[in-house]
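Sample intake sheet
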Amino acid sequence: MSALQQEVREMLRQQLLTWDLAAANHQALEDVRIKEFDLSGIKIKVQFNPARIVSSAAKVDSHSLKQRKCFLCPAHLPENQLHVSFKEYWILCNPYPIFREHLTIPVVSHTPQEIRTRINDLLLLARELPDFTLFYNGPRCGASAPDHAHFQAVPFGIMPIDNDIRPFLHLAYQEENCKLFLLTHYLRNGLVIESDSEDQAIRLFHAICQSAKTNPEETEPMMNLFVHFQESAWRLILIPRKKHRPWQYEAHNEQHFLSSPGAADIGGLFITVRQEDFERVNENLLRNIFEQVCLSDNETNELFQKFVRSKKNHYLCKKKLSSSK
């Protein structure tokens, strides 16, 4: 166990002894209600967790963000919240957990959520916390604080996506020390990078992002990202998104369903914060929501073909430049 991981575990232990809010919400996880679904071999757990309404119902438009104090800035953290430092980040105990040992990892300075300049840090942190899966919510993909850059981390294996994607992976591209898989027929489709080279993993990640669609008003493609380090190699699960919230979120009748899918939901632990939503959720509704917010099999293949063309064009460009010298 790394020194940082030991320090983080001790911090969590201390918080549950000294911080009543965190202790109460972690204890409540013992009695949380769960429903499990098997969607053609895909496991989805639905959790009823009313405390998470602070995230699911968060107003993330620019006006609302400017009107509230940022709850991830050091000046606004509770007095009894401890932290462990890592580079320019503070590792914190999440007081509104979805999982036991749920960490929030914000940058100390108030700067927007953006993965492009922080993927290096995410991989380094994953290497130092090998017992955890680290994840990233894009600004409109479940982040309740899109104005403040942060990651989250939970124990590896607690989300279904950690262990159940292997049958849905198809090797599509390979470089030295680096493989790229298509993840399809999984409802939350995407691309998976496996590499023992940090530089190659990052380069491949950026190439995929450049191939993905980015909305004009945004600085990066919509995505959720999961990273784990095991046996001297990284695995990055990149789940592109095409929508923030399903249409049911804004419905004003009996079809209203308060779902704002983030990495936990995409990871296979679907969060409901209202009793009526927990009772109502079924296989058809889960399929419908995932089909709205995630890419289809065809859209995933189209993204990969764009990536292939960009790699081919880059190679041809380099070849032309070499021959002109």
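Comment: The chain has a mean pLDDT of 90. The CA atoms of residues 154 and 210 lie 28 Å apart.
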